[in-house]
Write a structure and sequence with these properties.
Chain A: GO terms for molecular function: monomethylamine methyltransferase activity. The complex is a heterodimer of chains A (447) and B (224). With 447 residues, chain A is α/β, with parallel strands linked by helices. Chain A has 15 helices and 18 strands. By secondary structure, chain B is of the alpha/beta class. Chain B starts with a helix and ends with a helix. Classes of the chains: A alpha/beta (447), B alpha/beta (224). Chains A and B meet through helix 2 of A and helix 4 of B.
Chain lengths: 447, 224
């Protein structure tokens, strides 16, 4: 039986738990206990994680996944899986995936030290005006080193704002997928792997794009695990239909650091648990780790980089294709944006993760383009080729952190894509190109 | 009884989430004749502020904020409010808050609601997936001074505009201030949809709500 259906059947007969009790007792309280039992802690004065944390974080996450299970919001009930079921899912999970089609096919794998880094580009999840949607998508797809595209959300169709769960959301999902396809054809990479339809975090947009064949084999759809250790029938339905159509499930594991997952230590444990649960429930093919800082949001905060780094280490015991989201607080046109992206790339790649990004301004504004993904890819290649250790990567990241820490609480969102890039050539302005090169040379020294 | 000493102890125990002791101390202080407003301002409120400080420093997380909020509400309901009946003492403003229609995300909204309570606001939490009509009803029913709306999805954040339109249609827009927030929301979007303020995060939202209430009360006073 496929995972999403299994979850529904388990949930229908599962234990009823009031949501607040699930959040506070089943998740938060148990996570606090597991932190102590397994000796997982985060020290802000010395944030580089020890590689010895890999095993305890994996084991604590595994314990949480099996004990707590997945909360199905529509039923207010818990779907549980046995230890053997989780182990079997791990044993059978693909270590590498062939994604995309034809000459644009690429391999996304569970990375070891020195392995090539898979790079996603695009303004993932970011609202992008329809008139600039294709050009901005094309600017990422045109970068040869970008392996796959995860582009933004369309907010208005037929001149009206999109409404969730309504026909306009279906239309937004379709327009987005069509826009991405046109952009890929325009840059001569029609078979590039697409993660869509981001215009719809509910199931409506994805199901609509799927039904028209705009997403198919070789592509992926986003399947978030709801905060924390939760799902709903919308996600499960989307996952089920996607599996039936040969679509890859891209699980979004995005614990709120400072929320019910507690601090960085608890969030790392929750991330592992959510990864395992997404593997069983959604039969996800790959996993996007995106810790969200409860106040600062950005993945480039020390706390979130620590979570990504530790999940990368724990993945030695899971062996899954895991991708770190890189979402800086600042945006295109600012040096801080590049420093954030660089610090995040250092720790993610050295810790064994693939990368997605950078997505500017915490994904709130379309203030970036493909040249910044080239920047991230160049740095990722350098870190991988030189087999930079986790400790050395953290030393570099901390040096960079000094350059943007003050701007995390009042970030500069930067300039929109259409001011930073030429809309015909898709090239960055001379000034922005110069800045990116300068910062790349500066940060490459640290590798 | 040394009321000042007890207030400090209430504040310290509340910051440490010691529910039993807080309840006992508040009850004893009121029985002994300590001023009820001072119990709130010098004891409970200061304790909640310390909880907020610990949260910002990363020592406390959302569960601790929720727990502190529960202790505060329980003590207020059991011991303080019956003595304050009819009085608005201790209330910095009245906020109706909810996640807009089509969106079921509640962590950000819960955090803002808790931080508002921590800072002395009375909060009516409408929950998630709230249609515009319910915001309007609640504003009328509770005499809200601020409406707070949250959305996590780019496809649902524009629903906030519908709430503002519904407030206008009900003739309430100039009687209430509107603040919006959530991951995809920006200052620009807030302005575009006609909100009065944008809360970047929970701490910012509390500061903005305080300003909005002040503006509203000043405007009301000058129009009398």
């Amino acid at each position: 039986m496929r995972g999403p259906l299994l979850v529904e059947l388990r949930a229908r007969k599962g234990e009823y738990v009031e949501q607040k009790r699930f959040d506070l007792e089943r998740v938060s309280r148990r996570v606090a206990e597991l932190e102590k039992e397994y000796g997982v802690s985060f020290d802000p004065s010395s944030p580089a994680p020890s590689e010895d944390l890999a095993k305890p974080v994996f084991e604590a996450g595994f314990t949480l996944a099996v004990e707590t299970g997945l909360y199905v919001v529509d039923e207010s009930r818990v779907a549980r899986f046995t230890e053997e079921e989780v182990r079997e899912a791990l044993r059978n999970a693909p270590r590498e995936l062939r994604v995309g089609r034809g000459k644009d096919e690429r391999v996304l794998r569970a990375r070891g030290p020195g392995d090539r880094v898979f790079v996603f580009g695009g303004l993932a999840g970011t609202p992008v005006p329809l008139e600039f949607f294709e050009a901005s998508a094309a600017s990422y797809a045109a970068v040869p080193r970008v392996d796959a595209l995860d582009h933004g959300s369309i907010q208005a169709v037929a001149g009206e704002a999109v409404r969730g769960y309504a026909p306009s959301e279906a239309l937004a999902g379709i327009e987005e997928a069509e826009g991405v396809r046109r952009a890929l054809r325009a840059v001569g990479r029609p078979g590039m792997h697409v993660l869509g339809a981001e215009s719809s975090v509910s199931s409506v947009g994805s199901l609509s794009a799927l039904s028209l064949g705009l997403l198919g084999e070789g592509d992926a759809q986003l399947l978030p695990v709801l905060n924390e250790l939760k799902t709903d029938y919308g996600q499960l339905t989307k996952a089920y239909v996607g599996l039936a159509r040969g679509l890859i499930g891209a699980a979004l594991v995005d614990p709120v650091v400072g929320g019910y997952a507690r601090g960085p230590a608890g969030s790392a444990i929750v991330s592992v648990a959510e990864t395992l649960l997404a593997l069983v429930a959604y039969e996800a093919g790959y996993f996007l780790v995106h810790p969200v800082h409860i106040l600062r949001k950005a993945t480039s905060t020390l706390e979130c980089m620590w979570v990504e780094s530790v999940v990368g280490l724990a993945n030695r015991y899971m062996g899954l294709p895991v991708v770190a989201d890189i979402w800086p607080a600042n945006g295109g046109g600012t040096r801080e944006y590049l420093y954030e992206a660089a610090a995040n790339t250092f720790v993610a790649v050295a810790s064994g993760l693939n990368v997605l990004g950078p997505v500017p301004a915490n994904g709130t504004q379309p203030n970036g383009g493909g040249f910044e993904s080239w920047f991230v890819a160049s740095l990722a290649d350098l870190v991988a080729e030189k087999k930079v250790s986790v400790g050395a990567a953290w030393s570099a990241a901390l040096e960079l952190y000094e350059k943007y820490a003050d701007k995390l609480s009042s970030p500069n969102p930067g300039k929109p894509f259409w001011e930073l890039y030429d809309l015909k050539s898709l090239k960055p302005s001379a000034e922005w190109e110069k800045t990116v090169w300068e910062v790349l040379r500066e940060v490459a020294e640290l590798a | 009884m040394d009321c000042r000493g007890v207030y400090a102890e209430i504040s310290r125990r509340l910051a440490d989430l010691d529910a039993g002791t807080v309840e006992r101390l508040v009850s004893e202080a009121l029985e002994a004749g300590c001023d009820v407003v001072e119990v709130v301002e010098e004891g409970l409120r200061k304790g909640m502020v310390e909880v907020g400080v610990r949260f910002e420093r990363g020592e406390y997380f959302l569960p601790e904020l929720v727990e502190a909020g529960d202790i505060f509400n329980s003590v207020m309901e059991k011991y303080v409010l019956p003595r304050l009946k009819g009085s608005r003492a201790g209330v910095r403003g009245r906020v109706v808050i909810g996640t807009v229609r089509g969106d079921i995300h509640d962590i950000g909204k819960n955090l803002v609601a808790t931080m508002l309570r921590v800072n002395g606001f009375e909060v009516v939490d409408l929950g998630v997936d709230v249609p515009p009509e319910r915001f309007v009803e609640a504003v009328e029913k509770y005499g809200a001074e601020v409406v707070g709306m949250s959305a996590l999805l780019t496809t649902t954040m524009l629903e906030m505009r519908n709430v503002i339109d519904a407030l206008k249609a009900a003739g309430l827009r100039d009687k209430v201030k509107v603040i919006v927030g959530g991951a995809p929301v920006t200052e620009e979007i807030a302005r575009e949809i006609g909100a009065d303020a944008y809360g970047r995060d929970a701490v910012d939202a509390v500061e903005k709500c305080a300003k909005l209430v002040e503006e509203l009360r000043r405007a009301r006073a000058s129009s009398i």
